[in-house]
Amino acid sequence: MHPPVLSDKEFRQFQEMIYDIAGISLSDAKKPLVSGRLAKRVREHGVTSYGEYFSILMLKDQRAELQVAIDLLTTNETYFFREPKHFDLLRQQAPLLQRAGKPFRVWSAASSSGEEAYTIAMVLADVLGDSAWEVVGSDISTRVLETARKGHYPMKRIEGIPKHYLSKFCLKGVGPQDGTFLIDRSLRSRVSFQQANLNESLPKLGEFDVIFLRNVMIYFDMETKRQVVARMLPLLRPGGYFIVSHSESLNGISDALKVVTPSVYRKPDARET
């Protein structure tokens, strides 16, 4: 039996669905991606078209399946020490930003399978040691968050991790786990993961010294970008840093932050307002 073909009308239904739920704008060029990622779900439900599968997703008793579809359509590539200059900045600024009596907190706001959050944790463990600090990772996808919590990755993912961090924070798998590595328990204990849809009211996450929102705004239109950043800024403490990817900018999105360098912004503190 040949797999069904995703029609333009059906594609528009999924485009509207993922925009309404997650604020993500899928261009027409993403039609093959939608078709490919959802094909297995269409087959598993025994339906003959993507339209029928979409109708299933709209049923009130199919929230779990809707989450599966969201997971499949929102998962994006990530890797350790991506855009390393941001981690150089974190290494320099974390000791300066740390406040007596308060834990230093960083939010990886689109953490996917956890590589960014654990990269942040490696840097903080290196420069802040045993002092009070923590990392929070969030993502809309429950599936990638399960991977993130385990901290268990194929060995091919080690590229980019400095050798001294590998020996200090990563355990090489042996026997049945050969070809994989595990983030050390002491590091994993400093990182927590929580589901959060940046396009909706945020859960109670507390206040952060640094927020990473990288490689996600490229999927939002301008108005969604403004709403997402406005929703997140109250969680950044005055004097804290807000970091986007090198391919992104907050120009025209928020005037509440000051540019430090391209892709790095700072929230003015009371002395500067």
Could you explain how this protein is built, in words?
This protein folds into 2 domains: 67 residues, Chemotaxis Receptor Methyltransferase Cher, domain 1; 182 residues, 3-Layer(aba) Sandwich (Rossmann fold), CATH 3.40.50.150. The model has no long low-confidence stretch (mean pLDDT 92). The strands form 2 sheets. A 7-stranded mixed sheet has the order 6-2-1-7-8-10-9, with helices on one face. By secondary structure, the chain is of the alpha/beta class. The protein is globular, with a radius of gyration of 20 Å. Helix 5 packs across helix 6. Helix content is 39%, strand content 17%. A hairpin with a 2-residue loop joins strand 9 and strand 10.
